[in-house]
Amino acid sequence: MNCKISKNAAKVILAELAKPENEGKLLRVIVTHAHGDHAHYGMGIDEPTDKDVVVTTDKGIDIILEKDNPYLDGVRIDYFYVPEEGFAITNPTKGNHGDH
Predict the structure, then answer these.
(1) pLDDT at 70 over 70
(2) Which string of b and e fits 59-89 if b means at least 16 CB within 10 Å?
(3) Phi-psi region for residue 59, left (φ > 0), alpha (ψ -120 to 50) or beta?
(4) Cα–Cα distance for residue pair 45/29, rounded to 1 Å
(5) Of 13, 30, 82, 94, which has the fewest Cβ atoms less than 10 A away?
(6) Alpha helices of the chain — where are they, by DSSP H?
(7) Is 38 helix (H, G, I), strand (E, B) or coil?
């Protein structure tokens, strides 16, 4: 499985993971729901289970992904400051570019 993180997103994620309450935990990306040929995503701070795989990104951040979920393979995590500050998770490999 594969996951990419933009430079802006990595900076925000690392700051969150560095908080004392998140010690020993990782970022988890989930599919909140899927319909048609695409999915919608969410994320949180969590610990892996036996149903997960931990993927190391190109930014050196480990991400928890559910094993065998095809919508999670190839996700990209971005962080934008404008027009509205926040994360955007898409999967360009599945044709999901966050355009709806």
Answers:
(1) yes
(2) bebebbbbeebebbbbbbbbbeeeeeeebeb
(3) alpha
(4) 9
(5) 82
(6) 7-17
(7) strand
- Greatest Cα-to-Cα distance within the chain, rounded to the nearest angstrom: 40
Full-model pTM:
0.90
What does pLDDT average to over the chain? 92
**45-53 long-range Cβ contacts below 8 angstroms, 24+ apart:** 45/16, 45/17, 52/28, 53/1
The amino acid that residue 30 corresponds to is: I
Pairing of strands 75-80, 62-66: unpaired
User: What domains sit in the chain, N to C, each tagged with a CATH number?
Assistant: 3-94 (2.60.300.12)
Three-state SS at 35: strand
Assess whether pLDDT exceeds 50 at residue 100. Answer: no
Backbone angles phi, psi at 94, to 5 degrees: -105, 10
- Phi/psi at 22 (nearest 5 deg)? -105, 10
